[in-house]
Design a protein that fits this description.
The chain is an alpha/beta fold. Helices cover 42% and strands 21% of the residues. It has a 5-stranded parallel sheet with strand order 2-1-3-4-5, sandwiched between helices. The chain has a 4-stranded antiparallel sheet with strand order 6-7-8-9, covered by helices on one side. It has a 3-stranded antiparallel sheet with strand order 10-12-11. Helix 1 links the parallel strand 1 and strand 2. Helix 4 crosses helix 8 and helix 6 packs across helix 8.
């Protein structure tokens, strides 16, 4: 089973979460501060990190920024901060998911599994290794996107969204379909997360400059790459 690392200064949360996941067969380590978390990152080599935001000395945002410079391991923020600015900041720092408290353990487990599985290298049919839309090139196997020869530098979730829309170009992809593709499940707040990811994607890709390609918002439903 998978290895999980949780960094949170709340000892009760650490204990309850550790009890649940060890009972489910996972190997789990916990840390109550950033320093201990960094030490475990190198020794324990987790396959997913659960990260709180409000912690003493070094907060979760700083922890995420540092980890991202060292590893592409999936990072899930678990926080009571539900405001858009916190969510935007968390996702922009490279977090793969942002889950607001309170949450159900089975829902958390589903999100963890979805993020781990999406990070694993899976065999890909040769006919689906690359999608080309004019100057936009999406390399599915290497998980990179380019305009011409210039790499776009997309986060994992930005890449997942762009590749999903490209594979379904010309069709409306709903918020629920996007969430299930990216995270394996759909929660009410996922719509806000998706809108944030789309906004960041549009900042990195000037669709107006790409002849014949447009990322359309389908009001109340989702998005379509035309």
């Amino acid at each position: 089973m998978y290895k999980l690392l949780m960094i949170d200064d709340d000892q009760l949360v650490l204990q309850v979460t550790r009890d649940y996941f060890t009972h489910r067969g996972y190997t789990m380590q916990t840390a109550s501060c950033a320093e201990d978390g960094f030490a475990l990152l190198d020794v324990f080599k987790p396959e997913c990190i659960l990260l709180d935001i409000i912690m003493p000395q070094v907060d979760g945002f700083q922890v995420c920024r540092i980890i991202r410079k060292r590893s592409n391991v999936p990072i899930l923020f678990l926080s009571g901060k539900a405001d858009n600015m916190s969510i935007i900041k968390g996702l922009s720092l490279g977090a793969d998911d942002y889950i607001t408290k309170p949450y159900r353990m089975n829902e958390l487990e589903a999100r963890i599994l979805a993020n781990i599985r999406r990070s694993e290298i899976l065999p890909i049919n040769a006919t689906h290794r690359q999608i080309t839309l004019g100057p936009l090139i999406i390399d599915i196997e290497q998980h990179h996107a380019f305009i011409g020869k210039e790499e776009l530098g997309l986060s994992n979730r930005e890449f997942d969204l762009l590749s999903l829309l490209a594979k379904n170009r010309g069709k409306t992809v709903t918020y629920e379909q996007i969430a299930k593709h990216v995270w394996g499940s759909y929660r009410r707040e996922d719509k806000s997360y998706i809108m944030i990811i789309v906004s960041r994607l549009r900042k990195k890709i000037d669709f107006q400059s790409l002849a014949g390609i447009a990322l359309e918002t389908i009001r109340g439903e989702g998005y379509c790459l035309m």
